[in-house]
Amino acid sequence: MRIILTGPPGVGKGTQAVKLAERYDIPHISTGDMLRQAVKDATPAGLAAKTYMDGGGLAPDEVMIAIVADRLARPDCTRGFLLDGFPRTIAQAEALAGILDGLGVKLNGVVDIDAPDDLLVGRLTGRRVCGECAATYHIATMPPTRAGICDKCGGELRQRDDDSAATVETRLSVYKEQTRPLSEYYRRLGLLRDIQGDKGLENVFREICAALES
Q: What is the mean pLDDT of the chain?
């Protein structure tokens, strides 16, 4: 199974991606996680992307395309993959098509999860992430046992820079302008699967699986 998972920030792509990767026994390729690690490690790609990410914008296409091309060429992707966070622009989608052609494989589906803006803002601004193990919490819907402390490793919980209220609004605006056009792009190719992301985690997961397997 070769899948793209797309949708606005805060819609639950990461959570669904983990479940889908387990169901279909394929690697979950989160470009956001790869970029954040690159920033932490101060790699050339990370340094190039950091300014854009801190302001709520997208990393340059050439940075993202190079990272993804390298990842998809690895042996564990021969049985399939799930792309989470890429492509985010039409140019990236066209570049991905070229990468897949070069590998001799095709996509099975593009899952587009959507939800109302007010729900997305609440999810993102309330999110907290452990600085040590990267476990994720939410101050309202999934708080830790002790405020500000990770249940798993005892690390300090922090709000990511790109989850501040001002940056969230920017991220949503950028998504609508640059990424939402991907829906029509993949719809024309007959690959798009529309999913509403405000029905609860398990209901959304069942709908995604049904759409991919129909």
A: 91
What confidence category does residue 68 fall into, taking pLDDT thresholds of 50, 70 and 90? confident
Q: Which of 36, 71, 123, 127 is catalytic?
A: 127
Count CB-CB contacts under 10 A for residue 106.
10
| Domain contains 126 | no
The answer to whether 128 is a known catalytic residue is no
Number of independent structural domains in the chain = 1
Q: CB–CB of 163/171 below 8 Å?
A: no
Known catalytic residue: 74?
no
**Which among 19, 23, 160, 187 is annotated as catalytic?**
160
Tell me: pLDDT of 19 over 70: yes
**What is the token pair recorded at 5?**
């998972």
Give the residue numbers spanning the domain of 18. 2-116+165-213
What is the tens place of the pLDDT at every residue in 146-173? 999 999 999 999 998 889 988 999 999 9
Q: Which of 88, 123, 128, 193 is catalytic?
A: 88
Catalytic (active site) residue 13? yes
Q: Looking at 2, 13, 71, 123, which residue is catalytic?
A: 13
With cut-offs at 50, 70 and 90, classify the pLDDT of residue 51. confident
Q: Residue 189: inside a domain, yes or no?
A: yes
- Read off the CATH number of the domain in which 46 is found: 3.40.50.300
Please say if 23 is a catalytic residue: no
Tell me, yes or no, if 123 is annotated catalytic: no
Assess if residue 124 is contained within a domain.
Answer: no
